[in-house]
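Quick start: what a row looks like.
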Amino acid sequence: MFLAVLLGFLLTFIVPLLFKISKKYAGMIISLLPLGLFIYYLSFIPSVASNQISREYFEWIPSLGVNLSFVLDGLSLTFALIISGIGFAVFLYASSYLRDSEKIVPFYIYILIFMASMLGVVTCDNMIAMFVFWELTSISSFLLIGFNHEQEKSRYAALQALLITAGGGLALMASFILMWQVSPTFDISQLFASKDAIQQSPYYTAIFILFVIGAFTKSAQFPFHFWLPNAMEAPTPVSAYLHSATMVKAGIFILAKFSPILSGTDLWQWTLAGFGGWTMLMASVMALKQTDLKKILAYSTVSVLGTLTMLLGIGGKDAIPAMIIYLVAHALYKGALFLTAGMIDHGTGTRDINQLGGLKKHMPIATFVGVVAALSGMGLIPFVGFVGKEMVYESVINFGNYSIIFIVIAVVSAINIFAAMAYAGILPFFGKEKHPGAKPHDAGWQMWLGPILLSIFGLIFGIFSSALVEPLARNAAMQINIDPLEFHLTLWHGFNLALWLSLATIACGLVIYYYRIQIAAFLSKWALPKGFYPAVWYDYGLNGMLKSAEMQTKFLQNGHLRYYIATIILFFVFVAGSSFFNFSDINLIENSFYIAFENSLKVLSLYDLSIGVIITVVSTYVLRSNGRLSSIAALGVSGSMIALLFIINGAPDLAMTQLAIETLTVILFVLVLYKLPRFAVHSKLNARVRDFIIALSAGVLMMLFVLYVSSYPMLSTELRDYFAATSYLIAHGKNVVNVILVDYRGLDTMGEITVLSMAAIGVYSLLRLKNKTEDK
């Protein structure tokens, strides 16, 4: 399982090579990876159907409990099959759709990273590792949404998706940490036993709210829904893969994955059912107002995501199986419809349904795919969409006292989705012929093979749902509900309320489809004030943040180095120096200074006094000198005297470091400053007085710190004893200071080296910089 995830990342390294060898076939070759993964995951169906769970475990950071543990059960297998199966269709489709694009290589790199990250999310059993994959999906989707980055709309949509989903990811991470505080394990499977402890802890409300924010942002639930329709600026393969079948389902997956831990409370039930139901209804209405094929499909996707969230909130023997079936049905028909929209755009040059019609004789293959997928999305028998819709109706009917509210929401939403699917999959192909393209045509086989398979599977899974879908769905539902759920998938449940609601849905949906133009005009007249739209608040927040950053930059980054240094010193003096003004301990502080000063006089030697005098003299010379090189030399003498102090007090390592730094500093100063003119007094007297006060306050504060710290005996500490005892045994080093820097603080030291290296590169670049006029 880990190798299956890793393969996607590894293949990114050879994508450029494949396109260099054969640009024509590279995309088709890459598409073999998701196909192979789909076949690999298919092999787990028999074991999962018999309630066997496959596990893999690799140590990563065992000391923190962070490991690469993977689990493949019914729930994760369902999502893995969707990711890899639709991934094959999208990868193959893109090999033709983006064949002439100059950015096809980065496209495949980004989408491979995304696919591997999604597989990691749905199969990982460790919360921290899952979070890493979770954030990788946000980053890779940002790159894919902004694929056409030369367009402002693409950049805006990509940034919006990143800020919302990554912000939700941070909330999710906080929720994970709080769960760990209650039950000290990051393994999700071990958290199941801590359900009562988590729900009874004082952190439960915070855990739930943060968790739901993370899931809702990813699955485009109200009020975070607006980023998904805007993300339609991405190429069609991206829209079909990320925003229909996979990425947006990550939020649904994590809600389902943690349902055994967090569900069972009123907070869980009503939050998910309420927000999911509202998202379901609102987005379905918004879909009817759209004329762009991808926007219609995007809003209908948001509506279905709301349906899935609502079902997880309702829970129980009807809603959980309905969620699984509807999830599968939606992935099949919506993936096919998105790819069909791309074929229509490819063949006609437009996605506007007002400019499309009668394409069936020009694009018979696209017509077949669009109609079959749309019929499943409309919930007609014998498609799997019908099975899912019937189970949704059964769920809301049996909900309880508030069932009438959710019945109305479900039926109205289903009616709107029925019409929206007709808009997207039937309207462009029938009726009066109209299209802006001179010669509309079907695309090549790479573009229609995947959509045909998806639409046909939607029909096959509907007819043979009890044999093909039920075993996997039963195990997936058990992972969500823990207890086995008894249900049976079939196309015919007899004449019941759900069937009558389905017939009413079809009748009303046909009416909306027939009066499409009038209804769209009616809906366009109804608009809430701007303040009611979350997207407007997002823009206000983003613009406010940018303006605030601009104001702070103008104030702080004013271009004057002396002001930067003065600000830093004053802030340090204010924050650190305030610790000395705790008047309740003023006598203790005074005694500490007196003791330290008295002890310093006792150990003061002639060498110390001589070095102090030299440092004072050269420091005074620096302040009074009018020559840059002589001032630099005096600074070097001051630093060398400090190194000499280290040697006298038995710290040769520090002395060598100090000498090396002083030597390098003097050389750099000489290289940079030796060509500059002599010193000149440009500042006024009051500015020099101000600088003197700032420098004096910093010096006095550091003197007080040294006196205060040195007044206490250096007692043995646990950390110091640990370093002394283990530096040779573990790190095989006799010099404890070096071992601390290289091993115990290796990451910190590496960061410091990186900073110094970047500074050296900057200095080198400045030295090499020449004016263009000089070169001429």
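That is the whole record. The longest strand covers residues 54-61. Residues 316-348 form the longest helix (33 residues).
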